[in-house]
Amino acid sequence: MKPEHEAIVIKARKNADERAKGYREQALRMYPWVCGRCGREFTHANLRELTVHHRNHDHDYNPPDGSNWELLCLYCHDYEHQKLLEAAYGGSAGTQGPAAATHNPFANLKEKMKKK
């Protein structure tokens, strides 16, 4: 990689790290250390597994009141982003149910009851 490209990448990573640290620290001070989806509680020992999710998926929108954030555990956070990806691509084959049944077992019930 060229030196000017490396400098741009380094600067971008530094800015992203500073931005992430800023809103993460604010959110951890503002909200209880509980996953907003599954309710799992966190302590200092496992706090690294609690993430800050941007509700509107815009990581640059960080209002000081925290209205765009929610604390989610790693698993729930991944699930939220998976839902967004699936919605963008029209769902995934794994989430579609089986084909609907077309056979109606009661279609001729009245006729069958008359025969008895």
Tell me what you see in this structure.
- The protein is mostly helical.
- It has one domain: His-Me finger endonuclease fold.
- It is 43% helix and 9% strand.
- The chain has 3 helices and 2 strands.
- It has helices at residues 3-30, 74-88, 109-115; strands spanning 50-54, 69-73.
- The chain has a two-stranded antiparallel ribbon.
- The longest helix is centred in the N-terminal third of the chain and has 28 residues, at 3-30.
- The protein is elongated and about 85 Å long.
- Residues 35-82 form the HNH domain.
- One of its GO terms (cellular component) is cytosol.
Name some characteristics of this structure.
single chain; mainly alpha; two-stranded antiparallel ribbon
Structural class: mainly alpha
Query: How many extended strands?
Result: 2
Please list the strands of the largest sheet in the order they lie side by side: 1-2
Mean pLDDT comes to 85
Largest sheet: 2 strands, antiparallel
Distance N terminus to C terminus? 85 Å
Shape summary: elongated
Report strand %.
Answer: 5-15%
Q: What oligomeric assembly is this protein in?
A: single chain
Question: Helical proportion?
Answer: 40-55%
CATH architecture: 3-Layer(aba) Sandwich
CATH C-level category: Alpha Beta
Write down the domain tally: 1
The total count of helices amounts to 3
- The radius of gyration over CA amounts to 25 Å
Q: What is the name of the CATH topology?
A: His-Me finger endonuclease fold
Protein name: Putative HNH nuclease YajD
Keywords: Endonuclease, Hydrolase, Nuclease
Pfam families: HNH (PF01844)
Family: Belongs to the HNH nuclease family.
